[in-house]
Structures are given as C-alpha cells and as structure tokens.
Design goal:
The chain is an alpha/beta fold. It has 31 helices and 22 strands. Strand 5, helix 15 and strand 6 form a beta-alpha-beta unit.
Length: 829
C-alpha cells in the first residue's frame, strides 16, 4: 500500500509520506546548517508527518479527494503528535539501571525541543507549562493515546530510515545540541533553549511548506534543485561595484568639496574600512543628512562579500516610510528581482487551532487557505527591507507565518535604521534577539541612527562590541553638521490648531517651505483642513499612516518637486517623515516630543547646509491627545525639563540640546522612567514576557506553583510558556489589521489588485500579488475596523482572509475615510 502525504490538485499525482519526509529533512538540514544544527532540524523534518502512516489518515485523505464538496471535518485526524511522541518515548523516559546521566539529559532536552516543533507545526510552539499549571506538551507526547502509533513507527523504520541508522542520526543531533549548549556566553540555559526551539520550528515550517509548494507547482522535488543556486557573494560584489560607481559620481560632482560633502566622504570610507572587522553588534551614528543609506550599504555589501553573508536586511521603524530607501538601493543595484520590500502581512492571521487543539488543515487538495499559507514570503531574498514590527514578530508573534522567516536572519548583515524607535516595552526582547543573532547565527548587526539609544544601559543589556562606533571623532562631526537653531516655543506657551495655522502663515512671509510634524493623526488632519481652507495659492500636503505607501510616495515626490524648484510648499505630517526620508525644508515646526524626535525633525531642515542656519521651532500643541501614547508623553516631559535646564544655564548639556551628551542623558532618563515596562509586562498575567519565555526553574513562578499543587516536580527540563507569550505579544499595543486600498494613479494598480483577488491564481501568482499589494495597504485599529464595518466600507476576499476598502472609504488627499463618503469615490486624479 502507498501511504500518501499530498495529492496534487492539478493532476491528482500523489506524494508519498516517505518522499515528503525525506525531502523536508533535506531542506531542514540545509536551514539548520546555518547555526550548526543540521541533524537537529533534519530530525524535525524527518518526523513531522510520521502520523500520516496510519490507516485512519489514509482513509481521511482519500475521502477528502473523493468528496471535495463535502470533505471530512477539518483536522479530524491528528497526524502531528506521533513524531513528538516517538522522541519522548525513546529518549525522555529515564532508563533503568546504569546509564549516562549527561547523555540522558541531552537526549531528553533534544526530545523536548524537537518534539515541540513537530507537534506544533500547524499552530505555534506549545507551552511546556502554562499559567493554569497544565502542560499541553505532556498532554500530547505522554498522555494522548494513538491507536496506530506502533504501526506508524514500524512503517517509518521500513520506508524512511532503518532504526539503527535513525539512532545514529539522533546521536549526531545530540552532539550538535551539546556543542550549542557549550558556546561561551552568559545566556541562561532556558534562554538558549527558547531561541533554539524557535529556530528549529522556523526551519521545519519553511522546509515543510517549501517542499509542499514545490510539489504542488510540480517543481523539482527539492527547491534547491529547481533552479541553479544563487551565488550571493558574486551578486553582492556586483552590487558593490555599482554602488561605488554612484559614490564616485557624487564625490566628483558639484559642491563635492564642501565641508559637509567632505565629511560624508570620510564617513563612507570609514564604513568600508570597518567592514573588514569580524561580525558583531556595531553602531553607525552618522548625523542626519550625512549619507547614512549609502554608507551603511557600502559597509553591508563589503562585509557580506568578505564574510560570505547570505542576506542584507534593512529594518526601519514601524512609524516610518521604507519606500524611499528601498527605491534608492534598487536604483543603485539595478536589480528589482532580488530586493524584497516587506511592509506588512496582507493576509489576516490564520487561525489553525480549533477548540485549543492543534487540528491541522490538511493540504490533501490545496485550497484557498492552503495557497495563502504556502504563498507567504519566507525572506529568502538577498536584500530585504522590512519594519521593526515585522522583525519582532518573527521572534515573538503567534502563528507560523512570521517565525517561518527566522532562520533566514542568520548569516546576514542586519541594519536597524533609526534604532531609537524600538518600542520601549520590547527593549529587552529586542536585545535578546540581537544577542542570539550575533552569538549563534553568525549575523552582523548595525545600529544606525543619529541619536543612539543607550541599549546597554538597561537590565537585559545588548552584547555590544567594544570600540563599536564606525564614525571617528563623533563630537566633531556633529558640530560640523550643525545647520539649524532649535527655537524653544514650547515651555512658555501652548498652541491650538488655529494659533498654529496662524503661526505657519506668519512664517510663510519669510520662508517658502515649511514642514510641520505633530504627534497624532487627528491634529495633523485638522491642521491640514484649516490650512487648505484658508490658503488658496500655496500647496499644502498631508502625510500620515492613514495613507498607503504608494500614496505617501507620490505625495513625497510632489513635495520634492516643489522644493527642488524652490516653489512655496507646506507639508503637515505625523512622525513618519522623521526617519528614512531624504527631504529638506527651509523651516520645521515640531510638536514637543522626545529629544530623539526633535533631532530627527531637525534633520529635515536645511539638510545640506546651503543656507546658513535655519530655524526649527518646537511648539506644544494643546489639542494632542497623548493618553494612549505613553512613550511620547514621557519623552515630551523629559525634553521639556531639558529645555528648561538650558534656559537657566546656557552651558548645560554642552550648550546644545542635540549634543551627544544631551542625547545620552535623555535616553538614560527615558529608560529609567520606563524601567518597569522594558521587559514587556503583561497585565492580565502580572508577569513579564521575558519571564514567560526564559525564566529558569528557581525564578519560574509556575514551576514552583506546580510543585506546591501537585506535590511533584514537572517531569520536563523546560517549563516555559512559548504559546502564552506569543498570544500576548503585540509590537503595537493596539492590534491592527492590514487592509488593501483602491489607490493608484494612471494604472489604478490598487484597484486592479483588489479585482485580481477575485480570480483564481496559482501559488506563484498569489505570492506576487500579495507582494504587490503591500504598496497599497494600510493598517487600521480595531475601533476603525468596527466603524468601517458599520459604514459598509469593507469587502473581503479569499474566504475572508484578505480585506479591502471600498472606493468611497479612501480620500485622494488624506487616505482612510472612515465615513465612506469620499466625494471622488477614490482618488484617481
């Protein structure tokens, strides 16, 4: 009898269980090789679908194919427990008589790490011990009865790997685990095991889905063989040569010998020299306007070629715009196919758990849900631009779509642009993830910003290198880049929208271009309406995250055209314009906020220093509601006190509120004020997330409570709450949903993407469509979604997994229109 793993939809060809397990193992081994654990990840790949070797599952899969219109109940057959149960029975139950205690502990740990990945591969890593003092892991691998278990194991040894060879394979995995554990760093065992568990899970998820996708698309049995392997070093060398062509053109062009351009050249050369140093965590503190994008790319490409890195990944703040930097790099490398922009997850979270169990959606015949699951991007591109939200989701968010990408963060150069924007409640989690990538995953980390936060000041410190700064003589560079005067108009007065509008109109008498940056979308929109109503000659533009990336990009291009031709223009924006946007105004008005935000806003004024010294006015907008914006509110109050200090003593902070000294003091005060938030406190559980993920037994409250209640110790070496932590994790505390909007210029692309979602696509076409859709996506809060539902402004596609706006719910000037009454029926202008 042939035991079937999958049946291809197009021609009803089968993939046997043995084929799928061996091919998944091969892919998983390649992924595990990146951190020296090929047999550990291979073990997960080889055992994950062991439970398909049962009569019950074979009946299930044939019945599903024979009755596509009335298939058996989804997940009615458990096939993912068997592999974890085999490992538990073989290696976790302590043998009688003489035995090697160290070997037993090693194999038991291995069975927990790999077994958890296997039983969870249609959901998320299970808790070893949850807050109710139950162990879902033990429920599955120890307590659940599987009637055909012995039969399945017998077939596995017969068709996949003979038992003695399997035991040798496990021994090799155990040796890898021992080497992993002995790596010299200060990480606690539970933290090491947490990251190892997540890496193994990532490798398994990607290997399983990649093999399934290749089978479904009738590709070669292994994706590595479906096309010639890409030579990343050769590719990066080509990109480096193209970058140097651009740099040489800039350095020989007009104004190349100005003070600022000479400093840019020096800093760029220092970045190249630094690329010869071994991988680690480094800082790049180029002042705003100092050529940070080109200098960091120069470092990344040179370092990638020298140390054989596989990816260059730019991570930008979740509040900023990434299109400009991505487009700049795309133009330099002259290669669109190998650069991925990953803004957000267009597909809504898949809910693969039914009644709290791991009930799988079987890919017996690939349906809409399965196509979406297989189409999600795994970050295998050579160059990737993504956001801080997506980066942190890879490590900590629930579901399998994010963690699938984790293994591709290894052997990479990862550049965090504007790293000071890491959400405060995620600081410890961020630091721990970076320490893992440096120590275990052979990645090089660059913290890139003009306002370096004190990430080694907090309790869970960043393992940063000594002499880590790439730029020499930083204080001198900052002084030479001084192009603006900060004018404090915030400590003595407040302004409402009307007064602020009058102030803007007053400045327009002397300056032709003004940027106004405010703290909330509501006041940005109000000021925009007030200025457009009262000003009929000077163009006024609106920018916020209520607009999709393609829309924001178009607005920025129009604003730049006005600036380049020295025509009057006013732009009103949220803080998204403060990072990653190469733009320069004659004057900037910034609502009082954290000192880092003031510095970033100043970087949008007189950016190239061609007009002497220009003014950046700091005001206090009395209509801003910051009740739900705790970090902005605290940063604002610390900055206010520092401004008051300078009024009393002009020599305070080196006489400059934007000095390196001032910034260091600001961040230490800021993190001290928010100390209780740094470890991601979960109010519902009254626990920090860092405790749930990696507390050792002495500090694990649930472990101690288990002993007190049961009168026995938990019979596991690990006791952490991976699933519970993931369920409570949100980078942005107010959960958002991605919505595709019908935006577009001449080609109406957003509207066309929405129309195409109604059609039938292959997995490859759907992958391309979802990538394109990211340029036409906004994220909305729950209350906004409810209002849009009430106003009949949402439509759903692909079984409700993707949402889109109706045309009337998107305005051509400011984006999202909750009332769904846009007079343009959209914005096609």
């Amino acid at each position: 009898m042939e035991y079937i793993a999958h049946i291809r939809e197009s021609d009803q060809v089968i993939q046997t269980v043995a084929e799928h397990l061996l091919e998944t193992r091969q892919l998983a081994e390649a992924f595990g090789d990146k951190i020296g654990i090929r047999h550990i990840t291979g073990l997960a790949g080889m055992l994950h679908d062991l439970g398909k070797y049962t009569e019950e599952f074979q009946h299930y899969i044939r019945l599903a194919v024979q009755n596509p219109d009335n298939p058996p109940k989804r997940g009615s057959v458990d096939h993912s427990t068997a592999g974890g149960k085999l490992l538990y029975k073989l290696f976790h139950i302590q043998p009688q008589g003489a035995f090697d205690q160290q070997d037993f502990m090693n194999k038991a740990l291995l069975s927990e790490v790999v077994g958890n990945a296997i039983i969870s591969h249609h959901a998320y890593l299970q808790d070893f011990l949850d807050p109710t003092l139950e162990s879902k892991f033990l429920d599955r691998v120890r307590d659940r009865e599987l009637e055909e278990f012995d039969h399945a194991v017998s077939l596995f040894y017969e068709q996949v790997m003979e038992k003695s060879a399997f035991l040798r394979y496990v021994n090799q995995a155990g040796t890898e685990l021992a080497h992993y554990m002995k790596r010299e760093d200060k990480t606690d065992i539970e933290l090491k095991m947490m990251f190892l568990s997540k890496f193994v899970f990532s490798a398994l998820i990607d290997a399983d889905r990649t093999n399934t996708r290749c089978f479904e698309e009738n590709n070669a049995k292994n994706e590595k063989n479906s096309k010639a392997p890409m030579n990343r070093q050769q590719l990066f060398q080509t990109y480096y040569e193209r970058l140097m062509e651009r740099i040489n053109d800039l350095q020989s062009g007009e104004n190349a010998d100005t003070t600022i351009n000479l400093l840019r050249k020096q800093m760029s050369e220092q970045c190249e020299q630094f690329a010869d140093k071994p991988s680690g965590i480094h800082t790049l503190s180029i002042p705003t306007g100092g050529g940070k994008t080109l200098a960091s790319l120069r470092y990344a490409l040179k370092h990638a070629v020298t140390f054989e890195k596989k990816h260059i990944i730019y991570v930008v703040p979740f509040t900023t715009i990434i299109e400009q930097n991505a487009q700049e790099v795309r133009e330099i490398i002259r290669d669109d196919a190998n650069l991925l922009e990953h803004h957000s997850n267009v597909v809504m979270n898949e809910v693969e758990n039914i009644d709290g169990e791991d009930h799988e959606l079987e890919d017996v015949v690939v349906n809409t849900h399965q196509k979406l699951k297989l189409a999600k991007d795994n970050w295998d591109s050579p160059i990737i631009f993504t956001t801080m939200v997506q980066f942190l989701n890879v490590f900590y968010a629930d579901g399998s779509r994010n963690i699938r990408r984790l293994h591709n963060l290894s052997e990479s150069v990862i550049i965090f642009d504007e790293v000071q924007k890491v959400p405060t409640h995620c600081i410890s989690l961020f630091n721990q993830a970076l320490n893992f990538l440096k120590t275990y995953a052979s990645s090089s980390i660059v913290l890139c910003t003009a306002t370096q936060p004190e990430l080694d000041f907090v309790h869970n410190k960043l393992d940063i290198e000594p002499d880590t700064e790439m730029v020499h003589d930083l204080d001198h560079v900052i002084e030479k880049f001084k192009r603006v005067e900060i004018v404090d108009k915030a400590t003595d007065d407040t302004l409402d929208t009307e007064k602020l509008a009058n102030f803007v109109e007053q400045i327009l008498a002397d300056e032709s271009s003004i940027l106004v940056i405010l703290n909330t979308k509501a006041v940005v929109k109000n000021l925009y309406h007030r200025l457009t109503e009262g000003n009929g000659t000077i163009p006024v533009y609106h920018l916020s995250t209520s607009m999709c990336p393609a829309h924001r990009n178009r607005i920025l291009e129009e604003v730049k055209q006005h600036l380049e031709h020295k025509k009057p223009v006013v732009c009103i924006s949220t803080q998204l314009i403060e990072a990653g946007v190469d733009i320069s105004f004659d004057c900037v008005i910034r609502s009082l906020a954290g000192l880092d935000s003031i510095a970033q806003a100043a970087g949008r004024c007189n950016r190239h220093g061609r007009d002497g010294t220009k003014q950046v006015y700091v005001i206090d907008h009395e209509e801003e509601d910051l009740k739900r914006l705790k970090e902005i509110k605290i940063g604002k109050e610390i900055t206010r006190k520092m401004f008051i200090d300078l009024k009393r003593d002009e020599t305070c902070y080196g006489g400059n509120v934007l000095s390196a000294q001032a910034m260091e003091i600001y961040f230490k005060k800021y993190y001290t004020e928010l100390e209780t938030d740094l470890n991601y406190f979960i109010p519902q559980l009254r626990r920090n997330m860092t405790e749930l993920l990696s507390a050792n037994r002495r500090e694990n409250t649930y472990y101690r409570s288990y002993y007190d209640e049961k009168g026995t110790i938990l019979p596991l070496f690990l006791a952490n709450c991976y699933k519970t932590a993931a369920e409570h994790f949100q980078v942005i505390e107010d959960h958002t949903t991605a919505i595709i909007v019908p935006y577009g210029d001449g080609d109406k692309e957003g509207k066309e993407i929405i129309a195409d979602l109604n059609g039938q696509q292959s997995i490859e076409d759907l992958t391309s469509l979802l990538r394109r859709a990211q340029q036409f996506t906004i994220n909305i809060f729950h209350y906004e979604k409810e209002q849009l539902d009430q106003n009949k402004a949402l439509v759903s596609f692909l079984d409700g997994k993707i949402l889109a706006l109706t045309e009337g719910a998107y305005h051509d000037s400011y984006g999202l229109n909750l009332e769904n009454d846009s007079p343009h029926g959209g914005f096609f202008i």
